[in-house]
Amino acid sequence: MEIRELDLETRNKIYSHTKSILRKYQKGIITGKLTADKFANNILCDDYINHLLSKDLLNQEDFKSSYIEYINTLIHIQNENLSNSRKRKKEKKKATPPSISQKLKLKNLIQNEGYELVIPIQYLNSNDIDNIINYIETGDIELGNERIYNYIRKTNFS
């Protein structure tokens, strides 16, 4: 089993835990001293992960390799965000705001599909809205964007 095959709630918990650890060791990641392999081995031995997943799953090689790929994805996203943030500070630019058509599409989709936003729409950027729309339409969240799961919830349970 691979990490993408887990249910969204479990993936979101793993994402949050992994992301918090990656933030702690950001400097080591940037310098390249800490690799995804080291993180994976340490995190998979963590009590928090052991309570979420079975020992059989944690010992499977395909799960470990998919988790290492997942950590590499998160590291890449984190480094890209840092780079973009530095560029925006130099250029004094803000993140790309969503277009009016994106906002309208999201509002209509949310209303028609029985969802609600947990976060006010003005705090979402263009990329966040695209990911939420994709989640509502397909029911799937791209690896590394699990935070979207916390931004929206189902209102009618029919």
What does this structure look like?
This protein has eight helices and two strands, in the order αααααααβαβ. The mean pLDDT is 83. It has two domains: 89 residues; 55 residues, no CATH class. The two termini are 30 Å apart. It is mainly α and 158 residues long. It is flat, with a radius of gyration of 17 Å. It has a two-stranded antiparallel ribbon.
How large a portion of the residues is in β-strands, by DSSP E?
Answer: under 5%
**Helix-residue proportion:** 55-70%
What's the total count of β strands? Answer: 2
Mean pLDDT score, rounded? 83
Number of helices: 8
> What is the straight-line distance between the termini?
30 Å
Counted up, domains total 2
Largest sheet: 2 strands, antiparallel
Quickly describe the structure.
The protein is 64% helix and 4% strand.
Summary tags:
8 helices, mainly alpha, two-stranded antiparallel ribbon, 158 residues, flat
Question: How would you summarize the topology of this molecule?
Answer:
Layout: H1 8-24, H2 26-31, H3 36-44, H4 47-52, H5 55-59, H6 61-91, H7 100-113, E1 115-117, H8 126-138, E2 152-154
Antiparallel strand pairs: 1-2
